[in-house]
Amino acid sequence: MLFGKKQSLVGLDIGSHTIKAVELEPQSNKGYRLVNWGISAPLAEAIVDGEIMDRQLVTDAITNLLESRGMKSRSVVAAVSGRAVIVKKITMNKLSAEDAQQAVYWEAEQHVPYDINDVSLDFEILGPAPNDPKQMQVLLVAAKKDMVMSFSDLIREAGLQPLIVDVDSFAAQNALASNYDFGAEEVVAILNIGAEMTNINITQAGVPYFTKDLQVGGHTFIEGAQRKFNLSQSEAAAAVRGESGAGLDVVPVIEQSCEPLATALERAQAYLRTAGEAGPVTRIMLCGGAAMTPGVPEFLSRRFGVGAEIANPLARIGYDPALFAGQDVMKVAPLLTVGIGLALRRLGEKK
What is the value of pTM for the model shown? Predict the structure, then answer.
């Protein structure tokens, strides 16, 4: 075993707006316990589209967050997303896992829009292709090496040890798979709605069938409210969160801002149905800081005719309520989803 029975791990979700850190400890009953968590102050555009613009600011924010929260573990799992990450499902001739290694690299050259020598590549064999038993489906994950190295170096600069670099959308899926019993026939759309970006992941029976990062998030909602009502950024942010005393009806603005998200989901459904891979989405799970924006779950639920719910990534993870110091856990937990999914990872696992 690579980790001691009680060794905790920190999931570090480095977002464009804030950094979230989650420390989980494995329990003897195979479950997990939340040891600690923290959210940094806003980063002020230090990270844009997953790329770090101000290394020193981000490094200091990580160090200060872990120190202020008294996190003991130095072992970290982090994640990347954005333009430098490609997630693609490909079909190729059926091979053993060993033989597939070389063949996947050759296939990847046809599908990844970067020089294959410039990317870190991983893959998972998903199973037989739906319409041809001689073929198999493979999930291909490629991330630009310079971005992965940049994140890893950043974490080292903060005095921590990066063990794994994952992908945001898979971390969210990992968190929810550990806390919910999804039926084998359920087609679940997991939407991690952050400040700048939404990670879309459509899954069935644990298999990610469609993954996409979309430039829609909390800032989109705020900008929409600023334009519509001629507000300052702070006034618009308060209105979007439902904290404005001005009685403004921002829901239509938020619904309009969600339109690209709904369209992307509709197109994904149509693609999966045409390919014979998955039926329509039967459940929508929302997480991330902007998921709790008033009107978002209701809009998606109406649009797709299915339940859209705010996910609870702590449903099956033990914790001392004192860790939340009187805060409403369900207003904090969705923000920690990616961090929890990362802290659940262990070395040697395949995604």
Answer: 0.92
